[in-house]
Amino acid sequence: MKTSRFALPAAAALALALLAPAAHAQAPAAADATRPPRPVDALKFPKLRDVKAPQVVRERLANGMKLLLVEDHDLPRVSFRAVVRGGTIAEPAGKAGLAELFGEVHRTGGAGAMTGDQMDEFLERLGGSVETGVGDAYGVVSGSTLVEHLDKVLPVFADVVMKPTFAEDKVDLGKTHLRGAIARRNDEVMGIAQRELLKLVYGADSPYARQFEYADLDRLSREDLVGFHKAHYRPDTSILAVWGDFKVADMKARLEKAFGGWTATGMAPAIARPKVTAPPPSVNYIEKKDVEQTFIMAGQLGMRLDDPDYPAVNLMSDILGGGFASRIFVKVRTEKGLAYTAGGWAVPAYDHPGAFFFFTSTKPASTVEALTTVLDEIAKIRAAEVTDDELSRVKDAYLNSYAFEFDSTAKVVNRLQLYEFYGYPADFNLKLRAAIEKVTKADVLRVAQTHLDPAKLTILAVGRQDQFDKPLDTVGKVHVIDITIPEPVAAEKLADVTPEAVTKGKALLLKAAQTMGEPALKGLVDVTSEGTSAIESPMGPMDLKVKTTFVLPDRMVNEISTPMGAMVQVLDGDAGWIKMGPQSQALPDSALGEMKRGLYTELGCARLLKEALAGTLHAFLLGSADLDGTKVDDVVVALGDSSVHLYFAPASGELLGVKRTTQTEQGPADAVETFAAWQTVSGLRVPFESVQKVGGEVKASSKLTSVKVNAGFAEELFKKPEPK
Predict the structure, then answer these.
(1) Closest by CA position to 487, among listed 182, 205, 187, 185
(2) Does the pLDDT value for residue 547 go beyond 80?
(3) Pair 416, 68: CB distance under 8 Å
(4) What pLDDT digit, counting tens, does each position of 697-724 carry?
(5) Is the separation of the CB atoms in 336 and 494 below 8 Å?
């Protein structure tokens, strides 16, 4: 488990998740205000009884560790949760991604005498758990166990807190997982918009919005994780909450024994609270051609949770954007029918300014109309008092949901633990409820005018501006954001090689092009091939029939027969989509990039060697390499920000294989493809068999049954399906 640095409320996340069909949804009809009263409207309900919170005992171990202990004898279980000061805000300079990697490996890397895998097996057998995570200000270790296994699970929990080992193989695996997250981060428009708006509101270098790249992960090591733990995981900066079926005195004695050997040395490291400065207002745009709607977000800095104005701001934001009856939702969806959902929230933070967020999603042809509608509603709530009904509705909603803050001991304890961590009073939620009850219409108007200003908003639109109803700059000067993911830094640097290596590399490429058939390569326009492939997929081994139409340089159609049915995968320049049955969708950015990179090595590197004949490639002979036990000449070819290795037989110069970076479920990895069974078709020499390996394991093998060169193709193949 890894905690999020910054998350929208659950209701907001749910609403955002529903945005996919927004562009084509039919808005419901407005409610009939003239409807006569119903019997249910006359029902009266007694005031809810006061909620009784469980009794919390505060203790401290001899080593300085704070304890929050709660007896709860309903079930024979005990739960633990340790919060330790030090999260993303504690990352040293130049170590972006350290806290994320720490959260990945803290538990999986093992602790004490157990490896992570041994711990998995041990806890699973006992029905226990130990999990770790990292937030922006703290790390967390949580766990639970049946009472009968407390003496076995508690020492494991303590070891994870005090003695993680960060096994090197798990560090590598953690990096692999995070590389996969980087590779896929532009696949979902909702994730793009939230991420980029946070960067705009807080600043791209702020730990509340900072983004790490492949190069950042490459700079991190096991020693960095060990150092981070040594610096920040101390008993005097930790708060341990324990709740369940135990007696307080007995539990304190057990904890003293489990954590007694953990001591702090010297002063705790100072963690500077990041400075947060309001950005200037701006209008921003991200081009994303693989979406059929525009995703719009707007935001500005907000407030801390303990700001005296927060109770009124909370109700104001609910009236404005918090649900199906909110002003933004009613205006954008119910009245204008522009989107499936729309809204906004004030999201406070414990120890730094939170933010206001507003969102909607609409078809491109109503982008500016939807945006200005949201902005108009923000302006209106600053212009006049809300109605009695509006204030009563949101106040009742808050007060009626208050009991759910106490519907489990875990909720109560976790909240009190965070109050303790951030220095809030233990009865903060009671004071907040009392303040909510006292909010007036005048208060709502005052805080709207004080804290919310449409002229100061940071606005972001993600989509296809060529289809917008009006230019986006009608609402302000537009700043275009580039979300291109930097490629992993190549180990080879052309500037570091000798002229001799460049000459030899070029010679080997030209010889391979001549062997493939220089006249045929120069005249190559399209190739259609058919065959079979056996692949290792996430669902297991799979046999496929594949027909590929490759139109040089950058168009390709794969017609694939799978066990689940027929599938068509299309690349047309910078656009790509996939179709299965009647359903179609744009290729995610990670898949699109993978298809584009694969064009260079298709059919024995036909496109690459064709470009070599044209003299447009930069290459050099790196030296010798091993290809499945065979010594080969290794030629590196630069392709933009990436590179590809071509392996040649030293004596004959025959092209035996190629290595390039490919995207896997775990992120970028080196894939080695070997070629065999070469045949000449219409003057072009083509490998009819190939095998691809990743990490030394076979992931795919292919055999062609037919190849047609310059046979022409139907332009209909590249016709993009109309959105449903």
Answers:
(1) 182
(2) yes
(3) yes
(4) 899 999 999 999 999 999 999 988 876 5
(5) no
pTM: 0.74
Q: CA 594 to CA 101: how far, in whole Å?
A: 25
Name the fold adopted by 57-188+210-259.
Cytochrome Bc1 Complex; Chain A, domain 1 (3.30.830)
List % helix, strand, coil for the chain (3-state, nearest 5): 40, 30, 35
| DSSP designation for 114 | B
Distance of CA 433 to the CA centre of its chain: 34
Domain ranges of the chain: 10-26+276-405+424-480, 57-188+210-259, 494-718
**Residue owning tokens 């303590």:** 158
* Amino acid letter, residue 247: K
Distance CA 18, CA 271 (A): 39
pLDDT of residue 222: 96
Q: What is the dihedral of CA 286, 290, 293, 296, to 10 degrees?
A: -20
- Architecture (CATH level 2) of domain 10-26+276-405+424-480: 2-Layer Sandwich (3.30)
Q: pLDDT by residue (tens digit) across 625-676?
A: 999 999 999 999 988 767 899 999 998 889 999 999 887 766 677 899 999 9
pLDDT over 60 at 554, yes or no = yes
What distance in Å separates the CA atoms of residue 14 and residue 19, rounded to the nearest whole number?
Answer: 9
Query: What is the predicted pLDDT for the residue at 23?
Result: 36
Domains 10-26+276-405+424-480 and 494-718 fall in the same CATH topology: no
Cβ atoms of 648 and 622 within 8 Å: the answer is no
